[in-house]
Amino acid sequence: MQYEEVTFEEVHREVLHLIPGQPSDVLDIGAGTGRDAAALAARGHRVVAAEPTAELRRAGERIHAGSGIRWVDDALPSVARLGTAGERYDLILLTAVWMHLAEDERPLAMDALARLLAPGGRVILSLRYGPVPPGRRMFDVPAEETIAQARARGLDLLVRTERHDLHDRAGVSWAVLAFESAGGPRP
After folding, report:
1. CA–CA separation, 117 vs 114, rounded Å?
2. Which one, of 2, 55, 60, lies nearest residue 47 by Cα?
């Protein structure tokens, strides 16, 4: 599967230093087939993988069987199932997810992230730019908009980088943003 062809370390090289070093509670929203969730679980983290597409969730459960990942059928903008459970996370990861949210959904989604984030926790997300593949729902999301929405919810920008597409798709590039909630870094 395309998502499993590139390693966690390649995709997140700009923000690896922001991943907690000690076992932490991690939420991977839009986990796909679980590449990132599995890499984080292998590092000793307690990982919840939220993936609304049943086919991807089943593939992830099969590919990463025995990894300790807890799979959940949930999605932005509300992350309704996890939001009502009262769980809080030290790290929330959204790889290639945010650009699937419409303009009116993004403020609601940022509210949900802020509610799910533990004090001192971090959010790492990527934004895709370039041509939209046929049949896909994607929006051009300015990094500045995402940064402003995060700041309005008490999340401070830690990292903003841009890079080429790791699959070498013509005209596709990425921005990676990392935020931290009030309360400072977690040990």
Report:
1. 5
2. 60
User: Taking a C-beta distance cutoff of 8 angstroms, is the pair 20, 84 a contact?
Assistant: no
Task: Tell me the pLDDT band of 106, cut-offs 50, 70 and 90.
Answer: very high
Which residue's entry shows tokens 């986990």? Answer: 31
Instruction: Kindly list the domain boundaries of the chain, sorted by start residue.
Output: 2-181
Residues in the chain: 187
CB-hemisphere CA count at 13 Å for 153? 23
The pLDDT mean for the chain works out to 89
Q: For the domain covering 2-181, report its CATH number.
A: 3.40.50.150
Query: The tokens of 181 are what?
Result: 């909630």
Question: What are the angstrom distances between the C-alpha of 90 and each of 2, 99, 141, 147?
Answer: 28, 23, 25, 19
d(CA 42, CA 86): 25
Phi, psi of 80, deg, nearest 5: -60, -45
Would the pTM count as exceeding 0.85?
A: yes
Residue recorded with tokens 């370039």: 130
